Amino acid sequence: MTHHDPRPEAIVHAEHARLDYHDAMTYGDYLQLDAILNAQKPLSPDHNEMLFIIQHQTSELWMKLMLHELAAAKVALAEDRLPEAFKMLARVSRIMEQLVHAWDVLATMTPPEYSAIRPYLAQSSGFQSYQYRCIEFTLGNKNAAMLRPHAHRPDLLARVRAAFEAPSLYDESLRLLARRGLPVPASHLERDWTQPYQASDAVEAAWLQVYRDPQRHWDLYQLGEELTDLEDAFRLWRFRHLTTVERVIGYKRGTGGTSGVGYLRKMLDVVLFPEIWKLRTDL
Questions:
Q1: Which residues are listed for heme binding in this entry (predicted)?
Q2: Residue 101 among known ligand-binding residues
Q3: pLDDT digit of tens for each residue in the chain (283 aa)?
Q4: 55 is an annotated ligand-binding site residue
Q5: End-to-end alpha-carbon separation of the chain, Å?
Q6: Which of 1.20.58.480, 3.90.79.10, 1.10.10.10, 3.30.70.20 is the CATH number of 51-281?
C-alpha cells in the first residue's frame, strides 16, 4: 500500500506544480489583474459603493464580449456560415442571462445605502454606456438622439455611430432569407440603416414560409429560434433592470436625467424582431 502524505505542501509537491514564476507569465499577468483589480476607485466613504462599481464594471466586460460575438455573428450570417452564427448567438443569450442575475446582487443594496452614494455619482449614468448603445443599435433599436451623449468623446462617438449606420443583426438575417429565395421585399434589403426598423407583412410572410416547412428550411428555422431566444433574454435583462431600479430608488429621476423607472418601462415596449413574434399568432 502506498503511503500518501496528507500535508498540504506534500500534496502540492506530488502534483509537480510550478511554484517559481520569476521568469514566466503568471495568471495575473495574462489577465492584466493589476489593471482590473485597481480600477475600483470609490468616491464616497460608504461601504456599499464597491458593490455598485463592480456590478457595473463586470456588466461592461460582459457587454464587450456580447459585442465581440454579435459582430462575428453578423459576418457569419453574411457569409452563410450559419452553424458558427448560431453558436455565437446562443453565447450572447447566455451572457444576457448572466447580466439578468447580476441585478440580483445589486438588489441587495437598500434605498438608504444607495442614497449615501448617489450624490457622488453626479450625472454619470448607465444611460451613457456606449457599449450598451452599440448593443441596442446592433440589435436594431436605432435612435439618432442616442448619439449625443457621446459627442464629447470623438473616439467613442465614432464607435457608436458605426453601429448606428450599419445593418443590424436582423437586417443581415433578412438579407440571408432573400439569398435563399424567400420573398423579402426590396424595401427591407436596401434601406437607410439609421432608421428604426418598420415591421412588414411581407417579411412576416417570408418567415411564415420558413416556419410552415421547418424541414425544408431547417437552418433558417433555427435562425428564427435563435433570434427569439436572444430577444427573450434581452427582455428579461431590461425587465430586471427596471425592477432593480424601482426597488432601490423608486420613482426618482435617474442620475443621467431620464425619468428613471418611467423611461425603463417605455423601453420594455420595444420589439426588435417583430415578425418573428407575430407569426406565432398567424401560424
A1: 241
A2: no
A3: 556 667 777 666 666 777 788 889 999 999 999 999 999 999 999 999 999 999 999 999 999 999 999 999 999 999 999 999 999 999 999 999 999 999 999 999 999 999 999 999 988 888 889 999 999 999 999 999 999 999 999 999 999 999 999 999 999 999 999 999 999 999 999 999 999 999 999 999 999 999 999 999 999 999 999 999 999 999 999 988 888 888 888 877 666 666 678 778 887 888 999 999 999 999 8
A4: yes
A5: 69
A6: 1.20.58.480
